[in-house]
């Protein structure tokens, strides 16, 4: 697992209070990890802080799974 | 007429996080006061408080028992305490598994005096340091006072009235009184009622200290600081926590064979119409509130065996309340016991009236009244009144009067009696 993936997973576990083994790359934040739309706003803010990236609202709306988040961060971080 | 009884209790306080532990510690004369540990208080005039203890403490609070990890992260501590106390009360009443029909007629009236001050403070600092895009999306609904009632209704599926009183330090008592009326009026058969508070944060302590409301003379002896009626008192000690009761329509409770602790028989309310922080110099608001509660109960002062005083340990307030009790009770003052449990747990602000109502109910159950700690040298005006100094007292307790008074000149009194 990449460094980005490890750090994303850690943030998701901490924010959503889910078991680490549930946070697979194909897990959907809403369907599999119990997040609601505001939880995703909070997760996106945490990713921005952690990786120093900016995730605009239209991009954030397309982040549905853990893999989506990792991919966006890897493609956009400085 | 529909009657209202208490069938469940829940407590989170500086003396424990379940009803029996808190009560045992209170009766044993323990104090919940200590140096502030939540933040560095070294630059504050007041450096002590009655904090709810951490989970690893002998009588600490483990938030994870009844509150999801995610919710703990999103909301202020007063909401966490309130959810837990409400859960305890429902469990105690045997009502955690109600049918949908039952839940349609079960509601919440759990308030707070101030609400999410620690979160408002910390998120304001985030706003100033990092800008608006870093403010939490959970900021608003994690701080709002009615979000204990909101969270509890969602967790337990309670679809009846969803209400939250905000009357400063009278909140807990008003919450119970208002909820009892909702049951009497037929709006609900079951109500979770009470209050919570947690404002032990830099701006909370500074704000009350600047209002000259907090004790500042006992920073080196925290357990001595809350001393209602004592000549050495110099202000209140901030507490935190929650108290929630299950109120239930009497026939409803009987029909399901519920354990009944006490009946809510009287509720009085008044306004001082005098000053934002100082009590009325003749205690007239306090008097009228108590008088109304007794009248509604159809009782006289001679029927009351115990008064749980507002008694915050402020120089002005204690004696004005005592004067009002003395005038109302007349000759009956010689037979009543009156104590301030704020001497042990501090002032829980919006939670106080609910927590103290639970103490009143337990006094009826166990026929013992909790003490006023640190009452070494009573003020002269206390002569002839049994203020239960230092140690709890076994005595007959048929009916009790609980007083709560708040900033803005808002007063509430409840009369509870054995059934």
From TrEMBL, chain A:
The modification O-(pantetheine 4'-phosphoryl)serine is found at residue 37. Residues 2-77 form the Carrier domain. Gene3D superfamilies: ACP-like. Carrier of the growing fatty acid chain in fatty acid biosynthesis. The keyword Phosphoprotein applies. GO terms for biological process: Kdo2-lipid A biosynthetic process; lipid A biosynthetic process. InterPro entries: ACP, ACP-like_sf, PKS_PP-bd, PP-bd_ACP, Ppantetheine_attach_site. PANTHER family: ACYL CARRIER PROTEIN, CARRIER DOMAIN-CONTAINING PROTEIN. It is found in: Cytoplasm. This is Acyl carrier protein. GO terms for molecular function: acyl binding; acyl carrier activity; phosphopantetheine binding. The gene is acpP. Keywords: Cytoplasm, Fatty acid biosynthesis, Fatty acid metabolism, Lipid biosynthesis, Lipid metabolism, Phosphopantetheine, Phosphoprotein. Belongs to the acyl carrier protein (ACP) family. Pathway: Glycolipid biosynthesis; KDO(2)-lipid A biosynthesis; Lipid metabolism; fatty acid biosynthesis. It holds the Pfam family PP-binding. GO terms for cellular component: cytosol; membrane.
TrEMBL record, chain B:
Residues 1-418 form the Ketosynthase family 3 (KS3) domain. PROSITE patterns: KS3_1 (PS00606), KS3_2 (PS52004). It catalyses: a fatty acyl-[ACP] + malonyl-[ACP] + H(+) = a 3-oxoacyl-[ACP] + holo-[ACP] + CO2; (9Z)-hexadecenoyl-[ACP] + malonyl-[ACP] + H(+) = 3-oxo-(11Z)-octadecenoyl-[ACP] + holo-[ACP] + CO2. Pathway: Lipid metabolism; fatty acid biosynthesis. Its EC number is 2.3.1.179. GO terms for biological process: fatty acid biosynthetic process. Keywords: Acyltransferase, Fatty acid biosynthesis, Fatty acid metabolism, Lipid biosynthesis, Lipid metabolism, Transferase. Pfam families: ketoacyl-synt (PF00109), Ketoacyl-synt_C (PF02801). Involved in the type II fatty acid elongation cycle. Catalyzes the elongation of a wide range of acyl-ACP by the addition of two carbons from malonyl-ACP to an acyl acceptor. Can efficiently catalyze the conversion of palmitoleoyl-ACP (cis-hexadec-9-enoyl-ACP) to cis-vaccenoyl-ACP (cis-octadec-11-enoyl-ACP), an essential step in the thermal regulation of fatty acid composition. Belongs to the thiolase-like superfamily. Beta-ketoacyl-ACP synthases family. This is 3-oxoacyl-[acyl-carrier-protein] synthase 2.
């Amino acid at each position: 697992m990449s460094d980005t993936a490890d750090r994303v997973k850690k943030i998701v576990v901490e924010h959503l209070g889910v078991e680490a083994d549930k946070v697979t790359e194909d897990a959907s934040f809403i369907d599999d990890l119990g997040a609601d739309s505001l939880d995703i706003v909070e997760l996106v803010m945490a990713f921005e802080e952690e990786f120093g990236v900016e995730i605009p609202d239209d991009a954030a709306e397309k982040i549905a799974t853990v893999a989506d988040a990792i991919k966006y961060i890897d493609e956009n971080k400085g | 007429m529909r009657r209202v009884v208490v069938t469940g209790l829940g407590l989170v306080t500086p003396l424990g996080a379940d009803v029996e532990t808190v009560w045992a510690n209170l009766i044993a004369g323990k104090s919940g006061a200590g140096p502030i540990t939540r933040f560095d208080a070294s630059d504050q005039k007041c450096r002590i408080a009655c904090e709810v203890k951490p989970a690893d403490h002998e009588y600490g609070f483990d938030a994870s028992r009844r509150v999801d990890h995610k919710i703990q992260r999103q909301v202020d501590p007063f909401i966490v305490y309130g959810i837990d106390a409400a859960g305890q009360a429902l469990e105690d009443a045997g009502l955690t598994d109600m049918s949908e029909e039952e839940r349609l007629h079960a509601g919440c009236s759990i308030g707070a005096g101030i609400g999410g001050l620690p979160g408002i403070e910390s998120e304001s600092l985030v706003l100033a340091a990092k800008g608006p895009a870093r403010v939490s999306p959970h900021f608003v609904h994690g701080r709002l006072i009615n979000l204990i009632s909101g969270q509890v209704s969602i967790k337990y599926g309670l679809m009846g009235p969803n209400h939250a009183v905000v009357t400063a330090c009278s909140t807990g008592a008003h919450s119970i009184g208002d909820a009892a009326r909702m049951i009497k009026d037929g709006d609900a058969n079951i109500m979770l009622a009470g209050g919570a508070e947690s404002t032990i944060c830099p701006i909370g302590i500074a704000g009350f200290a600047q209002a000259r409301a907090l004790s500042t003379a006992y920073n080196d002896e925290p357990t001595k600081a809350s001393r209602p009626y004592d000549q050495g008192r110099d202000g209140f000690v901030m507490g935190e926590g929650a108290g929630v009761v299950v109120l239930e329509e009497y026939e409803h409770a009987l029909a399901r064979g519920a354990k009944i602790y006490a009946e809510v028989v009287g509720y009085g309310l008044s306004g001082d119409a005098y000053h934002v922080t100082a009590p009325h110099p003749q205690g007239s608001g306090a008097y009228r509130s108590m008088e109304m509660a007794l009248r509604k109960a159809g009782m006289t002062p001679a029927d009351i065996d115990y008064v749980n005083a507002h008694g915050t340990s402020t120089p002005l307030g204690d004696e004005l309340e005592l004067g009002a009790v003395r005038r109302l009770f007349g000759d009956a003052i010689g037979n009543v016991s009156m104590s301030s449990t704020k001497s042990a747990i501090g002032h829980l602000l919006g939670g106080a009236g609910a927590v103290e109502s639970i103490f009143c109910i337990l006094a009826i159950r166990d026929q013992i009244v909790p003490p006023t700690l640190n009452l070494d040298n009573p003020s002269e005006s206390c002569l002839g009144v049994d203020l239960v100094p230092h140690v709890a007292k076994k005595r007959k307790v048929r009916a009790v009067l609980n007083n709560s008074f708040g900033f803005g000149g808002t007063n509430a009194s409840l009369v509870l009696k054995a059934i």
